[in-house]
Write a structure and sequence with these properties.
alpha/beta; single chain; 15 strands; 7-stranded mixed sheet; 4-stranded mixed sheet
Length: about 375
């Protein structure tokens, strides 16, 4: 079938929840993907910051193949070696003590909120405007986009307070005796690649300690090297009580998780939470391969070097349509003075896959193995299109 025939299948059979780009991708290699018509694209989106090692990475592919030949799924009733090995590796690299495996970022955030409520016995959660924490009813309530709330207000859980991002005074005013947790993205992704002041997260940490509140950082998009450190909260020198993760953790396989301190984690006992698929042998084999590649190939150095270069090259573009360039590592936003959708289309037609978020911010979250040569190719094309 050709592209239009395949797209018509979605039009006829899928529940309509996505506005997709009009291409059918077939295969990828490194930082490039090819559609079924043979058109090649430089992937500056990486499946929404998921494909950390790019496409068809030999180490990741082999780990998945080898594990698939042994065990794919056994449920959470039994132990499996890849999950145990990965837990020790990751926790040894962080300030946390315990892990729970999930399947997605929304599930991780849902579990983190449950854990905070169980630990504190309190009922209110503070989150921020323009945040994004997921599309389940609870994580939707935490997400700071009123337009997402409107159709579901009648059934959304109560007790969620959205305050402006990067505003400590607003958080202080919202805190009360019923506050269980504050959940925040170290850097907002869906909200437009918004970077807070240096002391913002420190301030939240202090507020939480002073008031017995659980401090949750949502690292679903910012984690696993995306911002130049293994997790973005490290940039701000804070120690959260709970951290959620997903996207880049498995390099493309669906996986998420919760990390927590010993004290907080102890609030959950058998029966309080669970999962059928979380932490399965296949996804954990993939996660081990990603983490091993990070350590052996020093992926973070490439993220910092190429990310800094990318931002500086974007800042050289002297265009009236550019309002701001901001980012950390390889999570970069180009804010425009007009809507960005047309530029997404023009870049795709020129052979580059990008995303527009917050209406006018071109968001670039390429594979973490991207090179300066790739960046030069992209910036040249972007310059011509702008």
């Amino acid at each position: 079938m050709n592209t239009q025939e395949l797209i018509k299948i979605e039009d006829d059979y899928f529940i309509n929840t996505f506005t997709r780009q009009p291409i059918v991708l077939d295969h990828g290699e490194g930082v490039r993907v090819t559609d079924i018509d043979g058109n090649e694209y430089l992937d500056m989106f990486a499946g929404i910051a998921v494909n950390a090692l790019g496409h068809n990475h030999p180490r990741l592919v082999k780990a998945i193949q080898d594990q698939a030949a042994k065990l794919i799924h056994i449920s959470s009733i039994y132990y499996n070696e890849p999950a145990l090995v990965y837990a020790k590796k990751l926790i040894d690299l962080t300030n946390f003590d315990r892990i729970f495996y999930a399947n997605s970022g929304a599930e991780a955030n849902e579990g983190a909120i449950k854990l905070a409520v169980k630990y504190t016995g309190k009922s209110e959660i503070i989150s921020t405007v323009d945040s994004f924490h997921g599309r389940t009813l609870m994580t939707l309530a935490a997400t700071g986009h009123e337009e997402y709330h409107e159709p579901f207000k009648a059934v959304m859980p109560q007790g969620f307070i959205n305050v402006p991002y990067n505003d400590l005074d607003a958080i202080k005013e919202a805190v009360n005796e019923n506050t269980a947790a504050i959940i925040v993205e170290p850097i907002q992704g869906e909200g437009g690649v918004n970077i807070p002041d240096a002391e913002y997260l420190k301030g939240i940490e202090a507020i939480c300690k002073e008031n017995g509140i659980v401090f949750i950082v949502d690292e679903v998009q910012t984690g696993f090297g995306r911002c130049g450190t293994l997790f973005a909260h490290e940039l701000f020198d804070v120690k959260p009580d709970i951290m959620t993760m997903a996207k880049g953790i498995g390099g493309g396989v669906p996986m998420g998780g919760i990390l927590a301190t010993e004290e907080i984690a102890s609030a959950f006992v058998p029966g309080d939470h669970g999962t059928t698929f979380g932490g399965g042998p296949l996804v954990c084999a993939a996660a081990n391969a990603v983490l091993d590649e990070f350590e052996e190939k020093d992926i973070l150095s490439n993220v910092n070097e190429v990310g800094e270069y990318f931002i500086e090259e974007l800042k050289k573009l002297d265009k009236e349509v550019i309002a701001d360039v901001r980012g950390k590592g390889l999570m970069v936003g180009l804010e425009l003075t007009k809507h960005g959708a047309e530029y997404v289309d023009k870049l795709r037609e020129a052979g580059f896959l990008v995303n527009c978020t917050a209406g006018n911010v071109l968001r670039f979250v390429p594979p973490l193995i991207i090179t300066k040569k790739d960046i030069d190719e992209f910036v040249k094309a972007l310059d011509e299109i702008l």
